[in-house]
Amino acid sequence: MSVKAPSVPAVKAVPVPADSSVWDRISNWASENKAVVYTIAGVAIVATGAGVVYYVQSNSGSSQNADAAPRLSKKERRKRKEEERKKAEAEKSATSPREAGDSKPQVASVTSEDEIPDIDEDTVQALSADQRKEFAQKLKEAGNKAYGAKNFDRAIELYSKAILCKPDPVYYSNRAACHNAKLEWQKVVDDTTAAIGLDPEYVKALNRRANAYDHLGKYSEALLDFTASCIIDGFKNEASAQSVERLLKKFAESKAKEMMEGRVAKLPSPTFVGNYLQSFRIKPRPAGLEDSVELSETTGKGQLQLGLQAMEKKTGEGYEEAAAAFDKALELGDLGEYEAFAYNMRGTFRCLRGKHEEALADLSKSIELDPSLTQSYIKRASMNLELGAPDKAEEDFEKALKQNSTDADIYYHRAQLHFIKGEFSEAAKDYQKSIDLDRDFIFSHIQLGVTQYKMGSIASSMATFRRCTKNFEKVPDVYNYYGELLLDQSRFPEAIERFDTAIEMEAAKPMSMNVLPLINKALTLFQWKQDFAEAEKLCQKALIIDPECDIAVATMAQLLLQQGKVTEALRYFERAAELARTEGELVNALSYAEATRTQIHVQEKYPQLASKLSGMGAVLK
Ligand SMILES: *[C@@H]1O[C@H](CO)[C@@H](O)[C@H](O)[C@H]1NC(C)=O
């Protein structure tokens, strides 16, 4: 239940294709800045005056971000599964009907069968108020006994009669327990709804109904009930909190699957594509494809040349054009010596679109045609990494090095693999090797600095960055990443200075602009001065430049959430889901969106809880 401040910075690794550690960055940010963070098994439930928000921690199975822990071993996964199963069982029993007669202690009055009043709709009319009360109590006790003996039909009959005498939420809830035992979920919903109608804060009935909704596949409804129950009992019931997490995941996963099926594979934002492409050292165009060479657009080679030209625009349109041209080049064929290169390029864009299988096939084909084209191994490795197969990635690096042991790109990307796996000293070695082979590639220097920071060598890291600003004084990325590390050390004014420099340099570029420094500045202003207005402005600016930038969208959502602008925040989370490229990213975005939506619904449906929540916030702050 404590605020867990992350010890590692939310630094984004420089461009592996999977460099969107945005969710990670945000959940770190949230836990650093929220008043209260309840961390319950992976979900941080954050209570603020404005409401409750869940932060699904993104360590669940994304090889995406550089901060991610290495993937779980098989054994570890099995262990987790087992724990989950136990959890689910515990939860089942928590919401299972041992409550029968729960709210009042069971009176030891032994009611024998013939003492049980026999009433029906007509006879009940004749009873006095006191008699009804007395009968109801007796019928309920008999019902509990029948329930205890697992005679559910009899128990249902008795509770029904008790309800005729006196409509009491406990009787409805107990009858729901019987339906629950008989797996009649709709009837459970009906009875618990009646119980909740009589007592809106009846936690057990809420949990029972949630469980029934879950069985009926109505995850949103289930989520709403579990959330309400969590708030009512002050997050004391671990099982309900875990159910919230489980349902969020279930909901998001099933919806993500549905959405992925109908989705046209789009390229990610130009910021993202640009970052990926620049993680390879710039090479001159293959001889014969330069601008000076006249090629017909109706030939494969002509399309290849067109694609390369379009890429150099570095805009979203340019990248789409390039992707289309590479597709066409291979359709037209007759590529001769360029065939392996063409497969490499098409594979690259397919990979960026998230079409993993097809991309893998292209890269393998490229390798088959020309094993000396080491970039294809590297790209295949980074795809394997994204697909959660670091072993295969490692193999590809080995093969690439066999082809050419002096190619700096290979070392750089292998270092990225080590970095992602948390093997920082291995990573540092490979970055250094890459630098030794080619001092001019800036990202090896930047990443070395970040890695040193991660290893706790703050002084050497800062020295690396100071050196970078001397040797690469015109490269905005240097200032951006330097700024991130300064921000992590809460050296706010210095961080701002670096981000401003990066922003200025980016803006001076003739073509597209990397918006990360804008977003970083927004985060800094927020963390330093709680300056929402300025932070929002910067994010808006980023979104004007790159409307598809997922990091800007997610940051905006969080800024709005922090200010209690929940409905607006929801819009941005939904936008983040639209922009998500992979199923994993989509699940993340949908979880946030659904958690936010649930929060809005809880507030609408249970206005009385709002005061409870803010009261609680005050106590815990
Ligand atoms: C190996 O890679 C380097 C750097 O890209 C390149 O200069 C060199 O020509 C390559 N060697 C071979 C044998 O391909």
Structure description:
With 621 residues, the protein is an all-alpha fold. Among the domains are: 121-260, Tetratricopeptide repeat domain (Serine Threonine Protein Phosphatase 5, Tetratricopeptide repeat, Alpha Horseshoe); 271-405, Alpha Horseshoe (Serine Threonine Protein Phosphatase 5, Tetratricopeptide repeat); 406-465, Serine Threonine Protein Phosphatase 5, Tetratricopeptide repeat (Alpha Horseshoe), CATH 1.25.40. It contains 28 helices and 3 strands. The chain has helices at residues 22-33, 74-94, 129-148, 152-165, 169-181, 185-198, 203-215, 219-232, 238-261, 270-277, 300-311, 316-332, 339-352, 356-369, 374-386, 390-403, 408-420, 424-437, 442-454, 458-471, 476-488, 492-507, 516-529, 532-545, 550-562, 566-579, 583-605, 607-620; strands at residues 36-40, 43-48, 51-56. The protein has a 3-stranded antiparallel β-sheet, sandwiched between helices. Strand 1 and strand 2 (43-48) form a beta hairpin. Helix 22 packs antiparallel against helix 23. The longest helix has 24 residues, at 238-261. The protein is elongated. Residues 1-74, 91-110 and 616-621 have low confidence and may be disordered. It binds 2-acetamido-2-deoxy-beta-D-glucopyranose (NAG). The site of 2-acetamido-2-deoxy-beta-D-glucopyranose (NAG) has 4 residues, from loops.
